[in-house]
Write a structure and sequence with these properties.
36% strand; 2 helices; alpha+beta; 5-stranded mixed beta sheet; 121 residues
Length: 121
Amino acid sequence: MGYILGKSEGEGVKWHGHVTAVTVAPEYRRQRLAKKLMDDLEHITEKVHKAYFVDLFVRVSNASAIRMYNKFGYSIYRTVLGYYSGDENAYDMRKAMSRDKEGKSVIPLTRPIHPHELEHD
């Protein structure tokens, strides 16, 4: 059917949930399973880990996934240049949780970054 893999990471206002992978088998797509999996991860991120936001990385060429994440309330926070093998760029997409009352964690950056500039705290 499908699965989601995530983790909590960061410190202070950068404490967040991260979607490492979400996958739904082709025969189970368009049944809102990805939405259910994302909702569950967001619930755990917010209620159990009390994080500020959830983030994920998606290939800039994956228009259908970007549309899906937009529908789930995610927005593009920044572009990561050469994130994927083959030098394909990624979007770092984020969704603020209720702890981030002012939505500061999702205010888009004005310049792209390189993978070595990603925070690993």
